[in-house]
Amino acid sequence: MKTTVLILAALFAISTQAQESKPQVPQISVTGEGKIKVIPDQALITVGFQNSGAVAKEVKALNDEVVDRVIKFLRKMGIPANDFKTNNVSLNKGYDYEKKKSNFQANQSLSIILKDLSKYDEVMMGLNDAGVNTINGVEFKSSKMEEYEREARKKAILDAKQKAADYVSVLGQKVGKALLITDNSQSYAPQPMYKGNRMAMTADSGVERETLAVGELEINTNVSVTFLLE
């Protein structure tokens, strides 16, 4: 029994020594970054409205009237039905302790994809006239986001390869095949700055005003790459 244990221990020691003596594969690990700046051509507008009253049925009816006006207005603006949708609908009962009576509040929110930013001001004014009284947010997007993301990924790999080449050039070596690629990109929703969500013209002066600054979207891709060295 002791002899068997000694033999196994010897074999394990030989195997370990062989692994330790195995020559390391020359390689280099670097990170690469790809950036693409894009001018947005779409906007995701989220709006809402609410009505309150003593009778639930009447409050809901008020909200239904607003929905009807909003949908008719969006159709009039040439916005396809699949580019707007209801996000949330609620009808809540509350209690006014000062007046000592119950009341009801109906809330509804909608999101609209606006594919023609030149209509932004007209759409916002029309929504206000239809009964929308809350603008929850405006997020700018690009209709070619997937295409730009692919371009950013390619730039990130090229950046990593160039970095590796810069490092090993002074050693008289060359960059070989990629052994491992890891995508370190973070999911995010880029939101350029914008100003204004009201009318393009004031009712009293009739002077045109710039109310929208879409800025730029910056698409970022980050990768880690391990290259074989030749």
What does this structure look like?
- By secondary structure, this protein is an alpha+beta fold.
- It is built from 4 helices and 7 strands.
- It has helices at residues 2-21, 56-76, 120-130, 145-169; strands at 27-38, 42-53, 84-96, 101-114, 134-141, 175-183, 217-229.
- Strands 3-4-2-5 form a 4-stranded antiparallel sheet. A 3-stranded antiparallel sheet has the order 1-7-6, covered by helices on one side.
- The longest helix is centred in the last third of the chain and has 25 residues, at 145-169.
- The protein is elongated and about 85 Å long.
- The chain starts with a helix and ends with a strand.
- The relative contact order is 0.24.
- Residues 4-8 and 189-207 have low confidence and may be disordered.
Task: Set out the fold topology.
Elements: H1 2-21, E1 27-38, E2 42-53, H2 56-76, E3 84-96, E4 101-114, H3 120-130, E5 134-141, H4 145-169, E6 175-183, E7 217-229
Antiparallel strand pairs: 1-7, 2-4, 2-5, 3-4, 6-7
